[in-house]
Amino acid sequence: KKDINEIIKECEKNNVIVILNGLNVEDNEEVLKISKSSPNIFASIGMHPSYEYDRNFEKQAIQNKDDIVAIGEVGLDFKYSNKEEQISNFKRIILLAEKINKPLIIHSRKAQEEVLKLISNAGVSAVLHAFLATNKLIREAAELPNTYLSIPSNVVYSEQSRNIAILAPMSRLLCETDSPYMNKNERNTPLNVINAYKAITAIKKISMKEAESAISLNVKKVFKNIEIIKK
Q1: Is 115 contained in some domain?
Q2: Which pLDDT belongs to residue 214?
Q3: 60 falls within a domain
């Protein structure tokens, strides 16, 4: 937070578009505020499964639906024991996303199979963030309608992340950093998204221009109001 303004300026300078995810109601308010500070920052408000579910989130999402591009970060995390409660809450969130017609950005640690079951008939697009699953589940995810897999910048050293890029077609890939998390050796910021792009070009044997074009098209398909929200 100390140098967030400097990071935003660097994103603007390097034409990096950031979708900033909220984790709970309080965090979402900060996300909404930051998103208004730059044409490169877009808000996604969520209710992360590691937090106690707050039904005020649903009201918050409806009230701010015109200022957000997605509902996230949401999903399941079976590292925690309250599995049935998490599933019930996630079902509510899927219905909420359908109601306001926003895609879902989904966390699925130790719960990948259950997440795929729950989103298989969802009426909105889903982005599986850092979907570190088996090859079988990655293939299944890539075959679900309107479902996309996001390659994190840690792909440079994570075999599981590389497998996503190998197994999923370009038409289903997005890029992310999950900053400030998911980086071993250096500080992680949105600028590190270039690492994900470079990995995709190497794995898919395509040019950077081709990767940028394909992922840009996917972004527009998923986040339908991303081009008009700042106008």
Answers
A1: yes
A2: 97
A3: no
Residue 44 near residue 69 (C-beta atoms within 8 A) = yes
What's the pLDDT score for residue 200?
95
How large is the average pLDDT for residues 78-94? 95
Residue 4 lies in a domain: no
Query: pLDDT per residue over 91-144, tens digit each?
Result: 999 999 999 999 999 999 999 999 999 999 999 999 999 899 999 999 999 999
Given a cut of 80, whether residue 186 has pLDDT beyond it is no
Nearest C-alpha neighbor of 61 from the set 17, 16, 105, 119 = 105
Task: Identify the band that residue 21 occupies on the pLDDT scale cut at 50, 70 and 90.
Answer: very high
End-to-end CA distance of the chain: 27
Residue 178: give its domain's CATH number. Answer: 3.20.20.140
Q: Which residue has the higher pLDDT, 183 or 133?
A: 133
Q: Which two tokens stand for residue 28?
A: 């979402």
Residues of the domain holding 180: 69-222
SS (H, E, C) 177-231: CCCCCCCCCCCCCHHHHHHHHHHHHHHHCCCHHHHHHHHHHHHHHHCCCCCCCCC
How many domains does the chain fold into?
1
Query: Residue 208: inside a domain, yes or no?
Result: yes
State how far Cα 214 lies from the chain centre.
17
Non-local (6+) Cβ contacts of 97 within 8 A are 71, 103, 104, 122, 124
| 71, 45 Cβ separation under 8 angstroms | yes
Residue 159 has pLDDT above 90, yes or no: no
